[in-house]
Amino acid sequence: MEETVTANPADPADLPFDVFSKACPSRGTLEHVTGRWGSLTLGALHEGSFRFNELRRRVDGVSEKMLSQTLQALERDGLVHREAQPTNPPRVDYTLTPLGYEVAERLLGLIHLMEDRMPSVLEARERYDTGRGGR
How far apart are CA 68 and CA 54, in angstroms? Predict the structure, then answer.
């Protein structure tokens, strides 16, 4: 009698990638990319290589801790490359990987769309707030 081997459905490696499935590993990466700090960090790195403090100044409002966590998550996902130079003091540069560059290109399309359409968004907010008795 032949034994049937089935894949463990809890193992993400055995699942087709479907971001709408709660077990899909793509959800975590999507969260890293589309979260406030992830998208702004990728957008900034699209401009070129940055040292940590340069990047922190470029992504206005991000704390040192959040930027560090964001860069680690993006590096783990293969979107950011971290290169430590053996100098004194140490120098660390962050750049996009080819995959990170591709993701950043798409994010920048959305970012530019939102910047361009902000007058419409602000008008919609005003109508909404007015209809609700103001805010």
Answer: 13
Residue 26 falls in which region: left (phi positive, over 0), alpha (psi -120 to 50) or beta: alpha
Q: How many residues does the chain have?
A: 135
Cα(27)–Cα(61) distance, integer angstroms:
25
| pTM of this structure | 0.82
What is the number of other CB atoms lying within 10 angstroms of the CB of residue 97?
Answer: 16
Phi, psi of 84 (to 5 degrees): -95, 125
The three-class DSSP label of residue 80 is strand
pLDDT tens string 43-94: 999 999 999 999 999 999 999 999 999 999 999 999 999 999 888 888 999 9
